[in-house]
Design goal:
The complex is a heterodimer of chains A (499) and B (366). Chain A is α/β, with parallel strands linked by helices. Chain A has two domains: 8-94, Alpha-Beta Plaits (2-Layer Sandwich), CATH 3.30.70.20; 136-496, TIM Barrel, CATH 3.20.20. In chain A, 29% of the residues lie in helices and 15% in strands. Chain A is globular. The N and C termini of chain A lie far apart (61 Å). In chain A, 50% of the residues are buried. Chain B has a domain at 20-209 and 295-355: 4-Layer Sandwich (Glutamine Phosphoribosylpyrophosphate, subunit 1, domain 1), CATH 3.60.20.10. In chain B, helix 1 packs antiparallel against helix 5. The radius of gyration of chain B is 19 Å and the shape is globular. Chain B starts with 11 loop residues before the first strand and ends in an 8-residue tail after the last strand. Classes of the chains: A alpha/beta (499), B alpha+beta (366). The interface between A and B is large, with 41 and 43 residues.
């Protein structure tokens, strides 16, 4: 007996299907089959994750996946989701696992914020005719000048990252995603003049050549961390938390730890890679300061140090502490940020929206007069260029994107990364699947995406008479809320539309 | 309810004009009034004002506070505050003449003050910072009092009205200055509060500004980290504080300040020789949040000098004429031709390229 009825139905149009069996070959979940006797395609929809690989590959467009209309007796409290989760746990006794960001129906503040434009008193600027600048520097500002004996200014700027546009690819480890996915991200970052992030899985030797466009991460498991690694990138990120699973660590199952990953992570083949929930050398803020300075020592004070935290309730106080710990850049990850695997309960009910966290942190750092001592990077989730623009207007220096980047690579957000059977060659280590993702094509699609966003950003900037990204940062008067309560407006530090 | 200036942000277009005598020669306010009146149509009668340098030779070492009061209560409160912090050397009503088009005037007083040495010492601040903090505190906290001029040997005179009327109202024919700037305002809303008129001033820095900056809130939220309080919500106030911060607190000179607030485009910086490229990149990066975008032409007055600056796209007109030792600058050429029909040199500075004027060595401005 199986109390779980399949979520999806595979609809095959028999008048179109030519029995080419491409769907069968492409589906790593083994949904499709072929009945030799009857000469027809068959399917087991209970295995279907709705990743659209078969739909996209079908040469005659004979396939579609629909949500099943099989139903429980309607109940607003005990929804289908609630009931089936009980069945699953009753059967396995396990923690429910999920992937990618929080899909629940919480408010998306980006969609309740509107952007301004110039009319009459101030000319808009045409980005096709005038320079429109999106070059972004991340890092501390000196706050004072020094001059040499001739009175010339001395460059006393602490190390920083230079980006052609205020976007970076967020941390995704080699292990959680494939070699080809990493290759695509690295190539795209170099072409765009931005950075990608290794995540906590170390840096594959093939990718050292992309160092200038790489942020190397140091997480609680310290996988793949050594001197060359630390010095390989444009910056080092200490991962304290992740928006999808604040307060807990990570787990890469041994089955995914093949020869290459074992080497990169510096762990034995086939062993589970477990990142502890806390860094066991950081039990408080003064310990973080020690790690920040250890990393600065290890890299001769040449690399900016980033500290990534999850957006939790007291995020502004935490950020203030981080800013005073010597970190050059604070990265805040909202609760809609993605993950390769997280306990469902944590993903869906721990943490706060990035919009509110960003607004609170930026204001807090300004109230304390230290906003210039640190840059702010936010992610989780930035879905398009207007989310990006709103984030910068609220006070971010740049944004991290990861889910959007994976979508560009072909991800269909089926949210089953944890199975390792990604049909798109992204969240898998199976060689036959990995090779489906062509790094060149992937890089091109990433470049297209970010370039398109940058064009849109420039159009919107021009519309509001701003021709440089610096003048956008924290310019909250350019924002208005719509359909928000006074409390929400106060936290966001913006006025309501019409005010 | 119509919100007053300071409760709501009011963008404005405008006219500006300035005269600077490099040899320190002084003249009264008649010509500058004539100049601004030729640009009458660039104002709408909701604000005009003047800054004059070198006008108080008898009190040249004292801070001259010009203060608007809405009520006697505000005056009492402010004077109490002043007395706690300053020695008041002299005080009087600022002389004005009745004018049919200048109405609803507040009480307008002038004080020459020196910081009380004991209070100053106790504060552990340098003298200028002490004065700045007291002025900002008063403007932020004392309802109905507004210190709109606070420098040594300099005075701001401003009101709601057309600038030529404001000049007559304040009897500017009685003041002799080596440097004059003035402003006619065209705000796009109608609160008509006197404090909203230009120039804006802090210590000896005064700013008149034509334009509306699109970076306002980014600049404001940054500069307020350093103890400034942008109570009037106008962009000119923010520019005044930015100039004060970069010059007095950070130690940049005026040409460097221009490279920060009207920084060259990266594409321009790329083409510069290596040393210059490094210098400009440094300034732009280190003070990124003080880049000012959107249209502006400003005249920044300071002790012994003046800077004229356009935004980097030159979205506002500005023309400079030089004749002998005198430099004339205005939004429109007619406004300088009316003061001086013939020039040795006349030109429109490019966007982002400052015109910095200082007194000749030995020029006697006192």
């Amino acid at each position: 007996m199986n109390m779980l009825y399949p979520q999806f139905e595979v609809i095959r149009n028999p008048s179109r299907c030519i029995n080419c069996r491409a769907c069968e070959r492409q589906c790593a979940n083994e949904v499709h089959g072929y009945d030799e006797n009857l000469k027809i395609m068959t399917c087991d929809e209970s295995k279907c994750v709705n990743c659209h690989r078969c739909v996209a590959i079908c040469p005659t467009r004979a396939l579609k996946i629909v949500k099943t209309d099989h139903t429980f007796k309607e109940n607003a409290n005990w929804t289908e989701k609630a009931i089936t989760e009980i069945y699953r746990q009753a059967e396995t006794g396990g923690v429910l696992l999920s992937s990618m960001g929080n899909p629940e129906q919480h408010p998306i503040y980006w969609d309740k914020i509107l952007i301004n434009a110039s009319q009459v008193t101030n000319p808009s600027i045409d980005p096709l005719r005038e320079p429109m600048e999106t070059k972004t520097f991340l890092g501390k500002k000196p706050g004072k000048i020094e001059r040499d004996e001739n009175g010339n200014l001395i460059d006393n700027l602490p190390p920083h990252i230079e980006l052609n546009m205020p976007v970076m690819f967020s941390a995704m480890s080699y292990g959680s995603i494939s070699y080809n996915a990493h290759a695509a991200l690295a190539k795209a970052a170099r072409e765009l003049g931005i950075c990608y992030n290794t995540g906590e899985g170390g840096l594959h030797k093939d990718f050292y050549e992309y160092g200038e466009n790489t942020i190397v991460q140091v997480a609680s498991g310290r996988f793949g961390v050594h001197t060359d690694y630390l010095n390989a990138g444009a910056a080092i990120e200490i991962k304290m938390g992740q928006g999808a699973k604040p307060g807990i660590g990570g787990h890469l199952p041994g089955i995914k730890v093949g020869a290459d990953i074992s080497k990169t992570r510096m762990i034995p083949e086939g062993t589970d890679a477990i990142s502890p929930a806390p860094h066991h050398d950081i039990y408080s803020i003064e310990d973080l300061r020690q790690l920040v300075y250890s990393l600065k020592e290890a890299t001769n004070y040449k690399k900016p140090i980033m500290v990534k935290i999850a957006a939790v309730h007291n995020v502004s106080a935490i950020a203030s502490g981080v800013a005073r710990s010597g970190a050059d850049i604070i990265c805040i990850d909202g609760y809609r940020g993605g993950t390769g695997a997280a306990p469902t309960r944590i993903r869906d009910s721990v943490g706060i929206p990035i919009e509110l966290a960003l607004a609170a942190v930026d204001q807090r750092l300004r109230d304390e007069g230290i906003r210039d001592k640190v840059s702010i990077v936010v992610g989780g989730s930035i879905r398009n260029s207007s989310d990006l623009m709103k984030a910068i207007l609220l006070g971010a220096d740049a944004c991290y994107i990861a889910t959007a980047a994976l979508l560009a690579l072909g991800c269909h957000l089926c949210r089953t990364c944890q199975t390792g059977k990604c049909n798109w060659g992204i969240a898998t280590q199976r060689e036959d699947l990995v090779k489906r993702l062509n790094p060149e094509v992937g890089a091109k699609r990433l470049v297209n995406l970010v370039t398109a966003w940058n064009h849109e950003l420039e159009e919107m900037m021009g519309g509001m008479g701003i021709n440089s990204i610096e003048a956008l940062r924290g310019n909250r008067l350019m924002l208005r809320g719509i359909g928000l309560t006074q409390k929400e407006l106060d936290i966001l530090g913006i006025k309501h539309a019409g005010e | 309810m119509l919100l007053k200036e300071g409760q709501v942000r009011i963008p404005a277009g405008c006219a500006i004009s300035g005269i600077f005598h490099k040899d320190g020669k002084k003249e009264n306010g008649e010509r500058i009034i004539k100049s601004i009146s030729t640009m009458h149509d660039r104002s709408n009668g909701l604000g005009g004002g003047f800054a004059a340098y070198g006008i108080y030779p008898d009190f040249k070492n004292d801070y001259a506070f010009h203060i608007f009061y809405d009520s006697n209560r505000a005056k009492d409160e402010c004077e109490t505050y002043l007395k706690e912090n300053f020695d008041i050397i002299a005080m009087a009503k600022i002389p004005t003449r009745r004018h049919p088009r200048i109405t609803d005037e507040p009480m307008i007083f002038r004080y020459f003050v020196q910081p009380l040495q004991t209070v100053l010492a106790f504060s552990q601040l340098d003298e200028k910072e002490f004065v700045v903090r007291k002025v900002i505190h008063a403007n932020h906290n004392i309802k109905g009092a507004y210190i709109f001029s606070s420098g040594k040997n300099v005075g701001v005179f401003k009101a709601s009205g057309f600038p030529e009327d404001v000049g007559e109202y304040y009897m500017l024919e009685n003041y002799e200055a080596y440097s004059w700037t003035c402003h006619g305002r065209y705000p796009t809303n109608t609160p008509g509060w006197w404090g909203g008129a230009h120039p804006f001033a802090l210590l000896d820095t005064t700013v008149v500004h034509n334009g509306e900056i699109s970076s306002y809130d980014a600049n404001r939220r940054f500069i307020e980290m350093f103890g400034y309080s942008c109570d009037l919500l106008t962009d000119t106030e923010a520019i005044t504080y930015i100039v004060d911060y970069l010059n007095r607190r950070i130690g940049l000179n005026y040409s460097e300040i221009a490279n920060v607030i009207a920084a060259p485009f990266w594409s321009t910086i790329e083409k510069k020789p290596e040393e210059e490229k490094k210098r400009l990149t440094y300034l732009r990066n280190a003070f990124a949040s003080l880049l000012v975008t959107g249209p502006f032409s400003i005249l920044v007055g300071f002790e012994g000098g003046m800077m004229a600056l356009n935004d980097r796209l030159k979205l506002r007109s500005m023309v400079v004429g030089e004749k002998d030792e005198t430099v004339y600058i205005a939004s429109e050429e007619c406004a300088i031709r009316i003061m001086q029909p013939e020039f040795d040199k006349i030109y429109a500075p490019r966007g982002g390229e400052p015109v910095i004027l200082t007194l000749n060595k030995g020029g006697n401005a006192q």
